[in-house]
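Homework-ish question, so no full write-ups if that breaks the rules, but can someone show me the predicted structure for this set?
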Amino acid sequence: MSKLPKIKQSKIVAQTRLFAVEELSMEFSNGEKRIYERLKAGSNGAVLVIPVVDEEHFLLIKEYAAGVEAYELAFPKGLVEPAEKSIDAANRELQEETGFAANKLTQLKKISLAPGYLSHKMDVVVAEDLYPSKLEGDEPEPIEVIQWKFSDIEQLLLRDDFTEARSIAALYLLQSFLQQKD
Amino acid sequence: MSKLPKIKQSKIVAQTRLFAVEELSMEFSNGEKRIYERLKAGSNGAVLVIPVVDEEHFLLIKEYAAGVEAYELAFPKGLVEPAEKSIDAANRELQEETGFAANKLTQLKKISLAPGYLSHKMDVVVAEDLYPSKLEGDEPEPIEVIQWKFSDIEQLLLRDDFTEARSIAALYLLQSFLQQKD
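A: Not a homework solution, just the prediction itself:
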């Protein structure tokens, strides 16, 4: 309905090993002008994988999160490599981070993180029909893999080490997906 | 259970108007060393507000999201100001972005965004018992306020303009909160 504002000018104002900050000169359809900054994501996208073990259990991983300086529970995730499909990236990350591969992978939704100032998007993928298969990742220490019960999700939501919006959102999308299957 | 890795050194490697990128020299308890980068959030925190109209409806806003260059549906949110409580920030943002204030505000959970490389955390607050009250914000154009039915949440999750992980997570936390009230 609303007419998209125009990006009159853009430039990279900072570039580090991982991050690129872009400054945008915006003009809205009503004539208002604003200078915005946003973070540019890599061009290949990212995936989050929900490993479903059976009707009663799913897997979470616990690893160090430098942004919040704590060990956090979350679903496996990672960047898609050049020329890799996001389904294949999901199966690779699953094997690197949990030691399982999946015979069945289903894309649920492409989610954004903070669309106001991050360009990052991420495919949420459900992995089912798991079998043991380990790929080496680049983790500094072994990742802890935790089996969780669907019946204990309320306790999970209450935990101080399960805070990541993407993983909470994924759990919601999973429940909606599983209900539609029934 | 796991012993926290040590931050041996840290320095700001880029600073723009909005963003600060920090480089960390990490040492894990097994002796492995890594260089990490993370984005530092402002020190006052942020809030996301879920405005509940009645037992059948809640409010969403639609505004331009520069990160993904699209108009996106989401819950109102914003930064907490210095010396402001997050409940008060929630009520202020609610008035700025929807034209309503709330008599009842309940903190649900503190969520993180991408804890691996962002330090950002955000209080999710439910706003109930709404009444008209408008505060001027700094928006470049009027924000569209949309009333949505709880019974139409499945359609919302399917929409391409409702992608934000924080808002999807908030909806899940809201449903869990409302079920516990029943």
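Now go work out the reasoning yourself. Hint: Chain B touches chain A through 67 residues (CB under 8 Å).
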